[in-house]
Design goal:
By secondary structure, this protein is an alpha/beta fold. Helix 5 crosses helix 6. Helix 3 links the parallel strand 1 and strand 2. The chain starts with a helix and ends in a 6-residue tail after the last helix. It has a seven-stranded mixed sheet with strand order 3-4-2-1-5-6-7, with helices on both faces. A three-stranded antiparallel sheet has the order 8-10-9, with helices on one face.
Protein backbone atom coordinates (compact mmCIF):
# COMPACT_ATOMS: atom_id res chain seq x y z
CA UNK A 1 0.00 0.00 0.00
CA UNK A 2 2.81 2.42 0.92
CA UNK A 3 4.59 1.53 -2.31
CA UNK A 4 1.43 2.22 -4.34
CA UNK A 5 0.99 5.58 -2.64
CA UNK A 6 4.61 6.42 -3.43
CA UNK A 7 4.10 5.73 -7.14
CA UNK A 8 0.83 7.71 -7.20
CA UNK A 9 2.61 10.68 -5.63
CA UNK A 10 5.57 10.33 -7.99
CA UNK A 11 3.25 10.21 -11.01
CA UNK A 12 1.43 13.33 -9.80
CA UNK A 13 4.71 15.22 -9.39
CA UNK A 14 5.89 14.18 -12.84
CA UNK A 15 2.64 15.36 -14.41
CA UNK A 16 2.95 18.71 -12.63
CA UNK A 17 6.50 19.09 -13.93
CA UNK A 18 5.66 18.44 -17.56
CA UNK A 19 2.34 20.26 -17.78
CA UNK A 20 2.62 23.73 -19.30
CA UNK A 21 2.19 26.45 -16.67
CA UNK A 22 -1.06 27.68 -18.21
CA UNK A 23 -2.69 24.22 -17.98
CA UNK A 24 -2.26 24.12 -14.21
CA UNK A 25 -4.86 25.64 -11.95
CA UNK A 26 -4.02 29.34 -11.44
CA UNK A 27 -2.87 30.27 -7.96
CA UNK A 28 -4.61 33.67 -8.23
CA UNK A 29 -8.29 34.48 -8.71
CA UNK A 30 -8.87 37.84 -10.42
CA UNK A 31 -11.59 40.15 -9.14
CA UNK A 32 -14.15 39.03 -11.74
CA UNK A 33 -14.01 35.46 -10.43
CA UNK A 34 -14.31 36.60 -6.82
CA UNK A 35 -17.29 38.78 -7.81
CA UNK A 36 -18.96 35.84 -9.50
CA UNK A 37 -18.39 33.57 -6.50
CA UNK A 38 -20.00 36.23 -4.31
CA UNK A 39 -23.13 36.13 -6.44
CA UNK A 40 -22.35 39.53 -8.02
CA UNK A 41 -22.79 41.26 -4.69
CA UNK A 42 -22.91 45.02 -5.17
CA UNK A 43 -24.44 44.79 -8.65
CA UNK A 44 -27.77 43.10 -7.97
CA UNK A 45 -30.74 45.36 -8.58
CA UNK A 46 -28.63 48.05 -10.24
CA UNK A 47 -28.21 49.30 -13.79
CA UNK A 48 -24.60 48.51 -14.61
CA UNK A 49 -22.04 50.01 -17.00
CA UNK A 50 -18.71 48.32 -17.76
CA UNK A 51 -15.30 49.68 -18.80
CA UNK A 52 -13.18 46.85 -20.15
CA UNK A 53 -11.14 45.50 -23.07
CA UNK A 54 -9.97 42.02 -24.19
CA UNK A 55 -7.79 41.66 -21.09
CA UNK A 56 -10.90 41.63 -18.90
CA UNK A 57 -11.35 37.84 -18.72
CA UNK A 58 -11.55 35.07 -16.14
CA UNK A 59 -8.93 32.33 -15.87
CA UNK A 60 -10.72 30.34 -18.59
CA UNK A 61 -10.63 33.35 -20.95
CA UNK A 62 -14.32 34.19 -20.74
CA UNK A 63 -14.87 37.92 -21.19
CA UNK A 64 -16.16 39.99 -18.29
CA UNK A 65 -18.63 41.46 -20.81
CA UNK A 66 -20.15 38.04 -21.40
CA UNK A 67 -19.99 37.01 -17.73
CA UNK A 68 -21.97 40.06 -16.62
CA UNK A 69 -24.30 40.04 -19.64
CA UNK A 70 -25.26 36.39 -19.08
CA UNK A 71 -25.66 36.63 -15.30
CA UNK A 72 -29.37 36.73 -14.33
CA UNK A 73 -28.46 38.79 -11.27
CA UNK A 74 -26.84 41.58 -13.33
CA UNK A 75 -28.51 44.18 -15.51
CA UNK A 76 -25.63 45.21 -17.79
CA UNK A 77 -26.85 48.08 -19.95
CA UNK A 78 -23.79 49.91 -21.34
CA UNK A 79 -20.14 49.41 -22.28
CA UNK A 80 -17.35 51.97 -22.32
CA UNK A 81 -14.38 51.66 -24.66
CA UNK A 82 -10.93 52.95 -23.62
CA UNK A 83 -7.96 53.10 -26.00
CA UNK A 84 -8.13 50.14 -28.46
CA UNK A 85 -11.86 49.59 -27.77
CA UNK A 86 -13.80 47.06 -25.68
CA UNK A 87 -13.02 44.21 -28.09
CA UNK A 88 -9.49 45.40 -28.94
CA UNK A 89 -10.26 46.15 -32.58
CA UNK A 90 -8.73 49.66 -32.62
CA UNK A 91 -4.97 49.86 -33.17
CA UNK A 92 -2.62 52.02 -31.09
CA UNK A 93 -3.60 55.68 -31.18
CA UNK A 94 -6.73 55.06 -33.24
CA UNK A 95 -9.91 56.87 -32.24
CA UNK A 96 -12.64 54.78 -30.60
CA UNK A 97 -16.16 55.67 -31.75
CA UNK A 98 -19.58 55.18 -30.20
CA UNK A 99 -21.58 52.23 -31.50
CA UNK A 100 -22.99 48.89 -30.47
CA UNK A 101 -21.25 45.71 -29.39
CA UNK A 102 -21.92 43.10 -32.06
CA UNK A 103 -21.97 40.19 -29.60
CA UNK A 104 -24.40 41.62 -27.06
CA UNK A 105 -26.06 44.52 -28.86
CA UNK A 106 -25.22 46.81 -25.94
CA UNK A 107 -24.36 50.46 -26.63
CA UNK A 108 -20.63 51.22 -26.52
CA UNK A 109 -19.51 54.71 -25.53
CA UNK A 110 -16.04 55.91 -26.45
CA UNK A 111 -13.55 57.06 -23.82
CA UNK A 112 -10.82 57.55 -26.42
CA UNK A 113 -12.29 59.76 -29.12
CA UNK A 114 -14.02 63.11 -28.99
CA UNK A 115 -13.90 62.84 -25.20
CA UNK A 116 -11.81 60.87 -22.75
CA UNK A 117 -14.13 61.51 -19.85
CA UNK A 118 -17.61 59.99 -19.73
CA UNK A 119 -20.28 62.63 -20.28
CA UNK A 120 -23.50 62.92 -18.25
CA UNK A 121 -25.39 61.63 -21.30
CA UNK A 122 -23.24 58.48 -21.42
CA UNK A 123 -23.78 57.82 -17.73
CA UNK A 124 -27.48 58.65 -17.68
CA UNK A 125 -29.58 56.00 -15.93
CA UNK A 126 -26.60 54.06 -14.53
CA UNK A 127 -26.30 53.18 -10.86
CA UNK A 128 -22.77 51.78 -10.98
CA UNK A 129 -19.86 51.47 -13.43
CA UNK A 130 -17.51 48.47 -13.23
CA UNK A 131 -13.87 48.68 -14.35
CA UNK A 132 -11.99 45.52 -15.38
CA UNK A 133 -8.76 45.94 -17.39
CA UNK A 134 -5.35 44.34 -16.92
CA UNK A 135 -2.90 47.02 -15.84
CA UNK A 136 0.83 47.15 -16.67
CA UNK A 137 2.01 49.06 -13.61
CA UNK A 138 3.39 52.15 -15.40
CA UNK A 139 1.96 55.66 -15.15
CA UNK A 140 2.02 56.47 -18.87
CA UNK A 141 -0.26 53.55 -19.79
CA UNK A 142 -3.56 55.25 -20.60
CA UNK A 143 -6.02 52.83 -18.97
CA UNK A 144 -5.39 54.14 -15.44
CA UNK A 145 -5.99 57.66 -16.80
CA UNK A 146 -9.32 56.46 -18.19
CA UNK A 147 -10.13 55.01 -14.76
CA UNK A 148 -9.34 58.26 -12.99
CA UNK A 149 -11.47 60.34 -15.36
CA UNK A 150 -14.28 57.80 -15.03
CA UNK A 151 -14.15 58.08 -11.24
CA UNK A 152 -14.32 61.84 -11.54
CA UNK A 153 -17.26 61.74 -13.97
CA UNK A 154 -19.14 59.31 -11.72
CA UNK A 155 -18.46 61.47 -8.66
CA UNK A 156 -20.04 64.42 -10.48
CA UNK A 157 -23.16 62.34 -11.23
CA UNK A 158 -23.44 60.47 -7.93
CA UNK A 159 -22.73 57.10 -9.56
CA UNK A 160 -20.82 54.28 -7.86
CA UNK A 161 -17.61 52.77 -9.26
CA UNK A 162 -16.47 49.17 -8.74
CA UNK A 163 -12.94 48.07 -9.66
CA UNK A 164 -12.32 44.36 -10.25
CA UNK A 165 -8.73 43.91 -9.16
CA UNK A 166 -5.99 42.24 -11.19
CA UNK A 167 -2.25 41.56 -10.67
CA UNK A 168 0.37 44.21 -11.19
CA UNK A 169 2.68 42.41 -13.66
CA UNK A 170 5.70 44.25 -12.22
CA UNK A 171 4.89 42.89 -8.76
CA UNK A 172 3.93 44.97 -5.76
CA UNK A 173 7.37 46.09 -4.66
CA UNK A 174 8.85 48.05 -7.57
CA UNK A 175 8.58 51.83 -7.22
CA UNK A 176 10.48 54.15 -9.54
CA UNK A 177 10.11 57.63 -10.94
CA UNK A 178 9.45 61.16 -9.81
CA UNK A 179 6.00 62.60 -9.17
CA UNK A 180 4.25 64.48 -11.97
CA UNK A 181 4.89 68.21 -11.66
CA UNK A 182 2.63 71.19 -12.50
CA UNK A 183 2.61 71.89 -16.22
CA UNK A 184 3.29 68.26 -17.13
CA UNK A 185 -0.07 66.63 -16.42
CA UNK A 186 -1.53 64.85 -19.44
CA UNK A 187 -3.33 61.67 -20.43
CA UNK A 188 0.02 59.85 -20.01
CA UNK A 189 0.73 61.53 -16.67
CA UNK A 190 -2.72 61.94 -15.16
CA UNK A 191 -1.82 61.70 -11.47
CA UNK A 192 0.87 62.87 -9.07
CA UNK A 193 2.32 59.40 -8.70
CA UNK A 194 5.67 57.72 -9.55
CA UNK A 195 6.21 56.26 -13.01
CA UNK A 196 6.23 52.72 -11.53
CA UNK A 197 3.84 52.80 -8.59
CA UNK A 198 3.90 49.27 -7.15
CA UNK A 199 0.12 49.00 -6.60
CA UNK A 200 -2.64 46.95 -8.13
CA UNK A 201 -5.21 48.93 -10.06
CA UNK A 202 -7.67 48.54 -7.19
CA UNK A 203 -5.17 49.86 -4.67
CA UNK A 204 -4.30 52.76 -6.96
CA UNK A 205 -7.97 53.63 -7.40
CA UNK A 206 -8.47 53.79 -3.63
CA UNK A 207 -5.42 56.00 -3.17
CA UNK A 208 -6.42 58.38 -5.96
CA UNK A 209 -9.93 58.59 -4.55
CA UNK A 210 -8.88 59.28 -0.96
CA UNK A 211 -5.76 61.40 -1.45
CA UNK A 212 -7.28 63.98 -3.77
CA UNK A 213 -5.17 63.04 -6.78
CA UNK A 214 -8.13 62.92 -9.18
CA UNK A 215 -7.43 66.36 -10.62
CA UNK A 216 -9.26 66.29 -13.95
CA UNK A 217 -7.97 66.05 -17.51
CA UNK A 218 -5.51 68.93 -17.23
CA UNK A 219 -4.44 68.36 -13.65
CA UNK A 220 -5.73 71.73 -12.47
CA UNK A 221 -9.31 71.01 -11.39
CA UNK A 222 -10.42 70.45 -7.81
CA UNK A 223 -10.26 66.76 -6.78
CA UNK A 224 -13.47 64.77 -6.47
CA UNK A 225 -14.13 61.45 -4.75
CA UNK A 226 -16.67 58.88 -5.88
CA UNK A 227 -18.35 56.05 -3.99
CA UNK A 228 -15.77 53.35 -4.72
CA UNK A 229 -15.58 49.63 -4.03
CA UNK A 230 -12.80 47.21 -4.96
CA UNK A 231 -13.32 43.48 -5.43
CA UNK A 232 -9.93 42.05 -4.42
CA UNK A 233 -8.12 39.10 -5.89
CA UNK A 234 -7.51 35.93 -3.96
CA UNK A 235 -4.05 34.39 -3.75
CA UNK A 236 -1.96 37.31 -5.01
CA UNK A 237 1.07 38.44 -3.01
CA UNK A 238 3.32 41.43 -3.56
CA UNK A 239 6.34 39.35 -4.54
CA UNK A 240 4.50 37.82 -7.52
CA UNK A 241 5.30 38.67 -11.11
CA UNK A 242 2.56 37.82 -13.57
CA UNK A 243 4.11 34.49 -14.52
CA UNK A 244 3.77 33.42 -10.89
CA UNK A 245 -0.03 33.80 -10.92
CA UNK A 246 -0.79 30.96 -13.34
CA UNK A 247 -3.26 33.23 -15.13
CA UNK A 248 -3.26 33.47 -18.93
CA UNK A 249 -1.89 36.74 -20.27
CA UNK A 250 -4.24 38.49 -22.69
CA UNK A 251 -2.55 41.46 -24.29
CA UNK A 252 -4.21 44.67 -23.04
CA UNK A 253 -2.86 46.56 -26.07
CA UNK A 254 -1.14 45.51 -29.32
CA UNK A 255 2.43 46.18 -28.20
CA UNK A 256 2.18 44.38 -24.85
CA UNK A 257 1.87 40.80 -26.15
CA UNK A 258 3.35 39.16 -23.05
CA UNK A 259 3.82 39.87 -19.38
CA UNK A 260 7.54 40.33 -20.13
CA UNK A 261 6.54 43.19 -22.43
CA UNK A 262 4.89 44.86 -19.44
CA UNK A 263 8.15 44.62 -17.49
CA UNK A 264 10.12 46.02 -20.41
CA UNK A 265 7.66 48.82 -21.20
CA UNK A 266 9.06 51.21 -18.53
CA UNK A 267 12.60 50.16 -19.43
CA UNK A 268 12.49 51.44 -23.02
CA UNK A 269 9.29 53.42 -23.50
CA UNK A 270 10.77 56.81 -22.59
CA UNK A 271 13.58 56.35 -25.10
CA UNK A 272 11.05 55.15 -27.66
CA UNK A 273 9.38 58.58 -27.68
CA UNK A 274 12.15 59.85 -29.98
CA UNK A 275 11.81 59.41 -33.73
CA UNK A 276 14.84 58.51 -35.85
CA UNK A 277 16.89 57.54 -32.83
CA UNK A 278 16.80 54.00 -31.43
CA UNK A 279 14.36 51.31 -32.47
CA UNK A 280 13.03 49.53 -29.36
CA UNK A 281 11.44 46.42 -30.89
CA UNK A 282 7.95 47.80 -31.59
CA UNK A 283 7.12 46.46 -35.04
CA UNK A 284 9.17 43.34 -34.35
CA UNK A 285 8.67 40.34 -32.06
CA UNK A 286 10.40 41.99 -29.08
CA UNK A 287 8.52 45.21 -28.24
CA UNK A 288 10.41 47.28 -25.62
CA UNK A 289 13.06 44.55 -25.27
CA UNK A 290 15.81 45.89 -27.55
CA UNK A 291 17.73 49.02 -28.51
CA UNK A 292 19.00 49.07 -32.08
CA UNK A 293 19.68 51.13 -35.21
CA UNK A 294 21.13 50.59 -38.66
CA UNK A 295 24.12 52.82 -37.83
CA UNK A 296 25.04 51.21 -34.51
CA UNK A 297 28.11 49.07 -33.83
CA UNK A 298 26.43 46.40 -31.73
CA UNK A 299 29.64 45.00 -30.28
CA UNK A 300 30.86 48.44 -29.21
CA UNK A 301 27.49 49.24 -27.63
CA UNK A 302 27.42 46.01 -25.65
CA UNK A 303 31.01 46.50 -24.48
CA UNK A 304 30.26 50.04 -23.32
CA UNK A 305 27.12 48.94 -21.46
CA UNK A 306 28.95 46.02 -19.84
CA UNK A 307 31.60 48.46 -18.59
CA UNK A 308 28.97 50.27 -16.52
CA UNK A 309 28.32 47.12 -14.45
CA UNK A 310 24.62 47.95 -14.15
CA UNK A 311 23.00 46.03 -11.25
CA UNK A 312 20.68 43.21 -12.30
CA UNK A 313 20.92 43.74 -16.08
CA UNK A 314 22.74 41.79 -18.80
CA UNK A 315 22.99 42.55 -22.52
CA UNK A 316 23.43 40.46 -25.64
CA UNK A 317 24.07 41.50 -29.24
CA UNK A 318 21.10 41.23 -31.58
CA UNK A 319 20.43 41.75 -35.30
CA UNK A 320 16.90 41.90 -36.70
CA UNK A 321 14.61 43.40 -39.34
CA UNK A 322 11.36 45.00 -38.11
CA UNK A 323 8.18 44.00 -39.91
CA UNK A 324 6.56 47.43 -39.65
CA UNK A 325 7.29 51.03 -38.77
CA UNK A 326 9.85 53.48 -40.11
CA UNK A 327 12.62 50.85 -40.03
CA UNK A 328 10.63 48.05 -41.67
CA UNK A 329 12.86 45.74 -43.68
CA UNK A 330 16.10 47.34 -42.52
CA UNK A 331 18.80 45.30 -40.79
CA UNK A 332 19.19 46.79 -37.33
CA UNK A 333 22.07 46.18 -34.95
CA UNK A 334 22.01 46.61 -31.21
CA UNK A 335 21.40 44.92 -27.88
CA UNK A 336 18.69 42.94 -26.16
CA UNK A 337 18.60 43.18 -22.38
CA UNK A 338 17.61 40.75 -19.65
CA UNK A 339 16.98 41.22 -15.93
CA UNK A 340 19.25 38.72 -14.25
CA UNK A 341 18.36 40.02 -10.78
CA UNK A 342 14.92 41.60 -10.93
CA UNK A 343 14.94 42.77 -7.32
CA UNK A 344 18.17 44.74 -7.77
CA UNK A 345 17.42 46.08 -11.24
CA UNK A 346 16.03 49.59 -11.70
CA UNK A 347 13.84 49.17 -14.75
CA UNK A 348 13.52 52.76 -15.95
CA UNK A 349 17.24 53.46 -15.65
CA UNK A 350 18.06 50.84 -18.31
CA UNK A 351 17.20 53.22 -21.16
CA UNK A 352 19.16 56.09 -19.60
CA UNK A 353 22.29 53.93 -19.52
CA UNK A 354 21.72 52.99 -23.16
CA UNK A 355 21.30 56.63 -24.18
CA UNK A 356 24.47 57.50 -22.28
CA UNK A 357 26.43 54.76 -24.05
CA UNK A 358 25.16 55.85 -27.47
CA UNK A 359 26.10 59.46 -26.72
CA UNK A 360 29.63 58.43 -25.70
CA UNK A 361 30.07 56.32 -28.84
CA UNK A 362 28.30 58.71 -31.21
CA UNK A 363 28.48 62.29 -29.85
CA UNK A 364 26.38 63.65 -32.74
CA UNK A 365 23.48 61.27 -31.99
CA UNK A 366 21.57 63.41 -29.52
CA UNK A 367 17.83 62.57 -29.24
CA UNK A 368 17.06 65.95 -27.65
CA UNK A 369 18.83 68.10 -30.25
CA UNK A 370 16.07 68.80 -32.78
CA UNK A 371 13.47 69.26 -30.04
CA UNK A 372 10.56 67.79 -31.99
CA UNK A 373 9.74 65.15 -29.38
CA UNK A 374 10.96 66.88 -26.24
CA UNK A 375 7.48 67.98 -25.16
CA UNK A 376 6.15 64.43 -25.38
CA UNK A 377 9.19 63.11 -23.51
CA UNK A 378 8.49 65.66 -20.76
CA UNK A 379 4.85 64.57 -20.53
CA UNK A 380 5.75 60.91 -20.17
CA UNK A 381 8.45 61.71 -17.60
CA UNK A 382 6.05 64.01 -15.77
CA UNK A 383 8.73 66.68 -15.50
CA UNK A 384 10.84 68.93 -17.72
CA UNK A 385 13.73 68.56 -15.30
CA UNK A 386 14.48 64.99 -16.39
CA UNK A 387 15.21 66.15 -19.94
CA UNK A 388 16.98 69.34 -18.89
CA UNK A 389 19.32 67.56 -16.51
CA UNK A 390 20.03 64.50 -18.63
CA UNK A 391 20.49 66.31 -21.96
CA UNK A 392 23.10 68.57 -20.35
CA UNK A 393 25.46 65.80 -19.25
CA UNK A 394 23.98 62.33 -19.93
CA UNK A 395 24.98 61.63 -16.32
CA UNK A 396 23.02 58.59 -15.12
CA UNK A 397 23.92 59.06 -11.46
CA UNK A 398 22.53 62.60 -11.46
CA UNK A 399 19.32 61.68 -13.23
CA UNK A 400 18.83 58.68 -10.96
CA UNK A 401 18.89 60.92 -7.89
CA UNK A 402 16.12 63.06 -9.34
CA UNK A 403 14.16 60.13 -10.78
CA UNK A 404 14.04 58.30 -7.43
CA UNK A 405 13.56 61.31 -5.14
CA UNK A 406 9.85 60.66 -4.40
CA UNK A 407 10.02 56.89 -3.86
CA UNK A 408 10.21 56.90 -0.06
CA UNK A 409 7.36 59.39 0.25
CA UNK A 410 5.22 57.30 -2.09
CA UNK A 411 5.85 54.11 -0.14
CA UNK A 412 4.68 55.85 3.00
CA UNK A 413 1.67 57.47 1.33
CA UNK A 414 0.49 54.24 -0.32
CA UNK A 415 0.95 51.90 2.64
CA UNK A 416 -2.57 52.37 4.09
CA UNK A 417 -4.12 51.32 0.76
CA UNK A 418 -2.36 47.98 0.37
CA UNK A 419 -4.83 45.11 0.10
CA UNK A 420 -2.26 42.30 -0.12
Amino acid sequence: MVRNRFFVLLSFLLVCCVLPAQSRRPSVKPGIEVLRERGFEGLRGKRVGLVTNPSGVDSRLKSTIDILFEAPEVNLVALFGPEHGVRGDIYAGGSVVDGNDTATGLPVYSLYGRTRKATPEMLKGLDIVVYDIQDVGSRSYTFISSLGLLMRACAEQGIEVMVLDRPNPLGGRKVEGNYVEPGCYSFVSQFRIPYIYGLTVGELAMLINEEGLNLGEKGNEAPLSCKLSVVPMEGWTRDMLYADTGLPWVLPSPNIPSSRSAICYPSAGLCGEFNNYLQIGVGYTLPFEVFAASWLDAEALKARLDSYDIPGVAFRIIYYKPFSGSCAGQLLKGVQYFYTDYDRAELCMTQFYVMRAVKELYPDRDPFKDGSRNAMFDKVCGSRRVREMFSASFDCAEIRDFWMKDVDHWRSLSRPYLLY
